[in-house]
Amino acid sequence: MKKSSIVTIIVILVIIAGIVWFGRNSGNGGQSENPGGSPTPVAAVENTKVSSKTSKYENDELGFSVNYPTAWEADNTNSGVTFIIPIDQSQVSTVAKLQADITILSAKCAFPPVTTVKERQTVAVGAMNFSMISMANTVQGRDYFNRMYSLQSGNICYLFTFSAITLSPESKGLTGSNVTQAQNNNKAIVSTADGAFSDMVKSFAFVQAPQGKDETQVNPAK
């Protein structure tokens, strides 16, 4: 192939590449495809540390906020949030699990059918009325405790659940005075977490998601 033909082909390829590049950028208004300069969207979920002891969880998408102990670990779910409650390992105890959940359901609130209801009442928080039950039972040496609150708002149910599982002292190899110490510590640990859970529920508030602009009122850029 002649040298002049090779040069001609190279020139043509360069021209084509330039046309493609120009077409892509003109479709973006002359801007690069890198979205780094675009506005950052508002987060639907926010965890804000209020103090060393208290944090605030706010979910704009599901429309609520609560205050919770900063030491708790918040884990978002598709229908709410789960809080993993740390267990003080410095104490002699057999508490195996502490957890709090907030679940949002498009349904009428209903507690699970159980026969071991320990406590049942209505709790007023401002203008809101929460239904509450607590349950306790022992299965195969494990003690289970649950407290549940529910709040109906229109066709939406806000369900709050606290769960505690405690193992038997014998299963952890405890003997003598350590058994009594563990039993006392178990009650104190579960009671403290349960109280913090109830305080979290009482801090519940509805929030409204940021509203977008009415497109009919926005003047297009010229």
Relevant terms:
Protein Transport Mog1p, Chain A, 2 domains, 7-stranded antiparallel sheet
What's the topology here?
Blueprint: H1 3-26, E1 45-49, E2 54-59, E3 64-69, E4 73-77, E5 80-84, E6 95-105, E7 117-125, E8 128-139, E9 142-153, E10 156-166, H2 177-202, E11 205-206
Antiparallel strand pairs: 1-2, 2-3, 3-11, 4-5, 5-6, 6-10, 7-8, 8-9, 9-10
What does the model show?
By secondary structure, the chain is α+β, with helices and mostly antiparallel strands. It folds into two domains: 3-30; 72-206, Protein Transport Mog1p, Chain A (3-Layer(aba) Sandwich). Helix content is 23%, strand content 38%. The protein has two helices and eleven strands; from the N terminus they run H-E-E-E-E-E-E-E-E-E-E-H-E. The strands form two sheets. A seven-stranded antiparallel β-sheet has the order 4-5-6-10-9-8-7, covered by helices on one side.
